[in-house]
Amino acid sequence: MASASLQFFAFILALFGVFGGITATLLPNWKVNADVGSNIITAITQMQGLWMDCTWYSTGMFSCTLKYSVLSLPVYIQAARTTMVLSCILSAFGICISTVGMKCTKLGGDTDSKSHACFAGGVCFILAGIFELVPTSWYTREIISNFLDQTIPESSKHEPGGAVYTGFISAAFLLIAGVIFCTSCFKKQQGAWIYPPKQHHFPSTEQDSNAGYNLKDYV
After folding, report:
1. What is the SS3 assignment for 105-148?
2. Sign of dihedral through CA atoms 135, 141, 147, 150?
3. Is 190 helix (H, G, I), strand (E, B) or coil?
């Protein structure tokens, strides 16, 4: 019962990780640059994401530009696009597979099939978390290195946006959920290995005594 509750908790974490990964992939604020200037009225906030760049003015105007050209983008943005999409796909597969393998559901057939499905769902969550953690770390490294570079003007420097933090948190949720699903299956298999089913051995003394008794009757 405790294992089923732990799996349900991991499933909730995985749901948060999936929604967080999709949100981080679509948000345009992977890096933010606030240029106040000499007048607060003309202040603008520039945000750059994986798919679009947006500019927000203090007057209330908001404009976005899509990044149509893929080859013109830096390598880390291209890699972030690919890995984040793969992370979303793997996490979605993990949700479907882990639903079949959870103990609190009636799907998946016998116990061994549910255990294998639970382990496969945990592997999907771990891979999704890794695919999401790598681009966010790489993107953050590029932001920090450009920010510390003295040759880059202040107007071109950026800071990590909300999408980066969302990616880190959702990747942690997916990794934790994947580890919980995998270890719950391992514990079950380990218990079956250490404590094998007892075999009932019937003593033959009773049969021998009965056979001797029958022979005495015929003497």
Report:
1. CCCCCCHHHHHHHHHHHHHHHHHHHHHHHHHHHHHHHHHHHHHH
2. negative
3. helix
Is-above-0.85 flag for pTM? Answer: no
Amino acid, single-letter form, for residue 78? Q
The radius of gyration of the chain's CA atoms, rounded to the nearest angstrom, is 29
Q: Looking at this protein, which amino acid is placed at residue 9? A: F
Q: Which of 174, 141, 170, 175 is nearest to 158 (CA)?
A: 141
Going from the C-alpha of 154 to that of each of 76, 99, 146, 149, the distances in angstroms are 22, 49, 10, 10
Sign of the alpha-carbon dihedral angle for 11, 12, 17, 18:
positive
* Both structure tokens of 60: 């209330």
Each residue of 91-108: pLDDT tens digit? 999 999 988 878 777 776
- pLDDT tens per residue, range 114-172: 888 889 999 999 999 999 999 999 999 999 998 888 888 877 788 899 999 999 999 99
Q: Which CATH number fits domain 4-27+73-194: 3.90.79.10, 1.25.40.10, 1.20.140.150, 2.60.220.30?
A: 1.20.140.150
**For residue 171, how many C-alpha atoms fall within 13 Å in the half-sphere facing its CB?**
22
